[in-house]
Amino acid sequence: MRLVSVDEVRAAAERIRGVAVRTPLLACPWAERPERTLWLKPENLQPIGAFKVRGAWNALAVLPESERAAGVVAFSSGNHAQAVAYAARAGGVPAVIVIDDTAPALKIAATKELGAEVVLAPPAERAAVARALAAERGATLIPPYDHPNVIAGQGTAGLEIAEDRPDVASVLVPISGGGLASGIAVAVKALCPKAAVFGVEPELAADTRDSFKAGELVRWPSEDRVRTSADGLRAEPSELTFAHLTALLDDVLTVSEAEIRSTVGELAARSRIVAEPSGAVAPAAYLHRTDVLPPGPCVAVVSGGNIDPALFVDILRERTHS
Amino acid sequence: MRLVSVDEVRAAAERIRGVAVRTPLLACPWAERPERTLWLKPENLQPIGAFKVRGAWNALAVLPESERAAGVVAFSSGNHAQAVAYAARAGGVPAVIVIDDTAPALKIAATKELGAEVVLAPPAERAAVARALAAERGATLIPPYDHPNVIAGQGTAGLEIAEDRPDVASVLVPISGGGLASGIAVAVKALCPKAAVFGVEPELAADTRDSFKAGELVRWPSEDRVRTSADGLRAEPSELTFAHLTALLDDVLTVSEAEIRSTVGELAARSRIVAEPSGAVAPAAYLHRTDVLPPGPCVAVVSGGNIDPALFVDILRERTHS
Known about the structure:
The structure is a homodimer. Chain A is built from 14 helices and ten strands. Chain A is of the alpha/beta class. In chain A, helix 4 links the parallel strand 3 and strand 4 (about 95-100). Chain A is globular, with a radius of gyration of 18 Å.
């Protein structure tokens, strides 16, 4: 299977300039260890609160004018939906978004606010519903991860990491469908070949860890994957993203629900950023899986910040009282 | 009185590269109005959670080796203390920090964690205590705002605003001692002469608004200035910073305590950043003082994120329940 090249990621970087935020790396004096330093890549600062705007914009930007006019359709566990809605509005393209009926109300409301038509569907059916809508309207389906243009767009975050910290020793990236981890691994392995790249999953949705060990896609039932609080990490890799992950990742690490929760609190109190549970898994791995990380600068990607407000309050209260 | 020049700000920008974060401007789709867009300059993302690291590092970096060895002393309502401690540690310089005995425990603990010696003093006496300590030890006093090198360092944030948004129509900056507003106004007025630059204060510490109207420094008693929840904005300008403000600012705006609180909540929920009350006054002015702002892109500086955790939880709970 043909993997995305670093040149495709570079082309994507040209396209997204001025639409996606060029996020800085944030030093974390509070998480320094004698042998290792933590740098956050805060993708929660993107306009819709997640890295997804990179891939969505890249996929939309390459569409010919005639296809744009017919509109786009997307399905998503949440952040991709907002990203396609944002990119479509920026490009003046009509958008229909199919969202899980289990997604937080905040994500659904935010997608509507961006001018998109929203259709709710059960997680297991959303892909089929989206395909049917696209066929019916002659619109283009923008998949959340299973497309080279989406992977190349997400990979621009990896280009920026290599540019800002060419001495990076390890990069930690959350895995759900695997688009972000695939794209970042393409860029980092091409530009910083000595750096280790680790995928990170919640223990409760560790299908990719199992697949990586088995050398082939191992499927977890969706009722298992929905148990994690990291609602952005409940999807599973496609053949395309899994081909990238097996070729490029050094390993897949997992973190517990308690580690995810406490890291959301640490990031708010010590790095002054709001991360959603999915966005906290990579820094959680830095804090709790130190045995496998090489010494030197470690970059952890904070993939998003669209946390349910009540959950965020709960986590901060626990931290204040402990 | 000689004002800091844009060339001094440019020289400071060279010095702080790699120490201070090059913060991006963050688009806020949630705060778009037909005639105006909001861009946040998130200085809460600096290593110590506030813009102060810019000025502190610039002031330290210019010291000759012999003076560095004798150490530095600083006094501060909080964030400047941490900034000097951070810069001193980075430069291997001993630091003594005099902090208000009314400052949040978080700020005091964070300063000690950075390796500095901490001395507590009542707000009205901290300057005198710091001067006495400096004299006693032969150390250099790094003032929080009353120095050209500190003003030039803070001004680097203004250079970055002009670089990222040369079409900026207005810039909103909090005022306490006035170092940040002075430095940013120097850079913005030099590079974007059409842009309006507004200082912003809490209504409960609006001494600079009164001074600006009167054309001379009007002093508020410190017992009045400490009433605001914006504990970083309780200081007052010096002759030097006031000279910059009168020469360069278009006006000084004020915001209420309720507006500050609700804006802290908005910034967390909609822009996924943790702002302290002092850091929220500029975006609060964008949201609530629209009558005086010119149309076009508005940049609001979020000066810091070191909020008391219990206060942050209170504000988020209010927002969730309303």
